[in-house]
């Protein structure tokens, strides 16, 4: 047998594995999407409406090694055949797919103007373009892509730009540094620009703007920066925030511009601050029949949504019970944007409640397991002389002994001196 056969056989196996991987990546099952269009209006009295058209998106094999799937859907369905050189649309768990028409055009922004300064648009802009947004509902991964013509056929498309982020919602602790993630793929296109905006309560502002072609920062907000090394080499456009403030709560928008096209990802930032919980009075001592007020002070937390409960475990019981009638104060807004409030309840001490343990339990998004503080009620005269009482009596006796010893020495010195003078 020819020895070269033993070298050729592993190559065949490797090629088979590659073909199988391609077949699994580019499955015959299309990705079910919806084309969203706004129709109507146009200055007439007809109101605008939203029309949704079913779309089947077929991921094509860029090497044409995998046969195309037969089309079996209804004629009303729009069929799009897409080549994805970015590799961001290959996840089999992608869902929530939405497609809209895209009109390529110049953008009148200082950090985008250099991308189209020649004023010559490519012929491909005369064909239909689409904006695609897909999401993985299991982990929140989201991709926004721009689909443009691959050839002369309007249903043959390719990915020109892909912008992606690992999650649609971020949580950051107040005062901590933060990297708001945003990655992008631009193929061989060397001209690009990055823009970061922040939007809260309807107001929007530019945090960072960078012209990648001119390598120039056009806008920058204090405390924000980007890593230009990973930006150019790996398409990592993450925004680095030095210290998270309550004012950062809201939506961060990452927009990547290429000549005439753009794609955007938006991420919701939830700023959290861990509550400081104080349960008073501490220690919890009372006389029989005395009314005392339990106060659970919860301060410097964010966001506002919070739950505060007072509970009790009576002597001999193993179960907790929620105390009714707890009153909550109105929340106080602190200078740093955090909140504070107090939960209070009046109880009457009795010998039967001696040793009862009272709890304040706080539930907040910053503390998934909750925060608990507790005090034990000590009713005077119920358990006899306690260790604390003995320590107090010992301290009093020690102080009294010291005072009497000091006075004894003073009197002895005084009378001794007086008697010596009389003898002289």
UniProtKB/TrEMBL annotation:
Transmembrane segments: 390-407
Ranges for domain Ig-like: 275-378
UniProt keyword Transmembrane helix present: yes
Keyword Membrane part of the UniProt annotation: yes
InterPro entries: Ig-like_dom, Ig-like_dom_sf, Ig-like_fold, Ig/MHC_CS, Ig_C1-set, Ig_sub, Immune_Resp_Modulators
Keyword field: Immunoglobulin domain, Membrane, Signal, Transmembrane, Transmembrane helix
Signal peptide: 1-25
Pfam families to which the protein is assigned, alphabetical: C1-set
PANTHER family: TAPASIN (PTHR23411)
Name of the protein this chain belongs to: Tapasin
Source organism per UniProt: Xenopus tropicalis
Gene name for this UniProt entry: tapbp
């Amino acid at each position: 047998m020819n020895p070269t056969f033993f070298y050729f056989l592993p190559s065949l196996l490797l090629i088979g594995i590659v073909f199988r991987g391609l077949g699994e990546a580019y499955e015959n099952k299309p990705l079910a999407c919806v084309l969203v269009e706004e129709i109507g209006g146009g200055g007439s009295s007809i109101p605008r409406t939203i029309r949704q058209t079913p779309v089947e998106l077929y991921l094509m094999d860029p090497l044409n090694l995998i046969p195309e799937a037969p089309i079996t859907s209804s004629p009303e369905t729009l069929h799009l055949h897409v080549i994805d050189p970015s590799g961001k649309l290959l996840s089999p768990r992608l869902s929530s797919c939405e497609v809209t028409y895209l009109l390529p055009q110049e953008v009148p922004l200082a950090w985008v103007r250099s991308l189209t300064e020649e004023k010559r648009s490519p012929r491909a802009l005369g064909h239909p373009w689409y904006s695609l947004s897909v999401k993985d509902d299991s982990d929140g991964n989201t991709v926004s892509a721009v689909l443009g013509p691959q050839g002369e056929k309007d249903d043959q498309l390719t990915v020109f730009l892909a912008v992606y982020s690992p999650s649609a919602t971020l949580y950051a602790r107040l005062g901590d540094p933060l990297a708001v993630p945003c990655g992008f793929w631009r193929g061989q296109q060397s001209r690009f620009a990055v823009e970061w905006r922040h939007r809260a309560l309807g107001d929007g502002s530019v945090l960072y703007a960078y012209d990648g072609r001119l390598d120039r920062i056009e806008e920058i907000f204090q405390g924000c920066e980007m890593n230009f090394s990973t930006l150019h080499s790996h398409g990592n456009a993450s925004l680095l925030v030095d210290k998270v403030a309550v004012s950062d709560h809201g939506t961060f928008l990452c927009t990547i511009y290429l000549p005439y096209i753009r794609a955007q990802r938006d991420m919701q930032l939830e700023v959290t601050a861990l509550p400081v919980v104080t349960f008073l009075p501490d220690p919890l001592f009372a006389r029989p029949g005395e009314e005392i007020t339990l106060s659970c002070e919860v301060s410097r937390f964010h966001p506002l949504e919070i739950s505060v409960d007072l509970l009790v475990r009576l002597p001999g019981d193993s179960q907790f019970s929620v105390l009714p009638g707890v009153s909550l104060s109105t929340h106080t807004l602190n200078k740093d944007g955090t909140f504070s409030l107090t939960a209070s309840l009046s109880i009457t001490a009795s010998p039967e409640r001696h040793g009862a343990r009272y709890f304040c339990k706080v539930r907040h998004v910053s503390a998934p397991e909750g925060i608990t503080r507790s005090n034990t009620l000590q009713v005077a005269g119920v358990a006899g002389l306690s260790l604390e009482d003995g320590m107090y009596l010992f301290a009093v006796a020690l102080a009294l002994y010291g005072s009497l010893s000091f006075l004894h020495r003073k009197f002895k010195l005084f009378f001794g001196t007086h008697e010596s003078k009389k003898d002289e």
